[in-house]
Amino acid sequence: MKKRRKLNTNNVMIVLVFILMLSFCICIIVKSDLFDVKKIDVIGNKRVTKSNIMKELNINLNENIFAYNFKDMKNKLIKNPYIENVEIKRKLPNKIIISLKEKEIFAVLKDEDNYCYIDKKGNLLEELRGSNESKKDLIVDVDYSVDDNKSIKFKNYKTKENVFKTLNYLKEEGIYRKINYVNLKKESNIEMLTRSNIKILLSNDDNLDYNISRVSKILIDLQNKNTNGGTINLNYGKLAVYSPEG
């Protein structure tokens, strides 16, 4: 009986020694330069540059891959107004992969020489003064301001409602990308300009969705006729008037 106990004790000691040695070896390997970061891949970024990400996270090559707290890194990046979601992964032995999902610019708000990029919820993405760098996004000329908390403040609730109502109708009709400029300075009337230089005039009333659907059909007809320029006027009730350029 004593001999069996002694054997069991010896077996336990052997197992413990083995575990300690294995843990020691793993610790040595993990801390070796085998796991020093050699490459950092950034995926899904368009507006946010890799250099800005590296600077924000303070990532350096040749540091141990296990030294980084990915949760803290994610929390830092998600503060960037352009970033909607972040995933950070290790690809052993020496690579970090940062996958971003960026917010899309829903519209460019314009007030005199000030421009603001906003997302689909109306959140401020970026504020520019004097010039607009985003040439492909729709510009909305409207009264607004930016408060100390970097939030967009429209002149009143109706102004905000007009912005998102108009833009959403354009998206629903599939002509959002065809429009270059929308003037919402006047509450009762809306003026638009297409990328083919066609001016659109319409009333801002309860028939706005219907009139924008009419605009969509008229633009298709003009496109089929290879017609650019001119004015589409929908301020005559059910009558749509197109005036050629000149």
Automatic annotation (TrEMBL):
Domain of life according to the entry: Bacteria
Keywords per UniProt: Cell cycle, Cell division, Cell membrane, Membrane, Transmembrane, Transmembrane helix
Subcellular location: Membrane
GO cellular component, one term: plasma membrane
Transmembrane segments: 12-31
Organism: Clostridioides difficile
Gene name for this UniProt entry: divIB
Protein name: Cell division protein Fts-Q type
Domain POTRA span(s) in chain numbering: 35-103
GO biological process, one term: cell division
Signal peptide, first to last residue: none
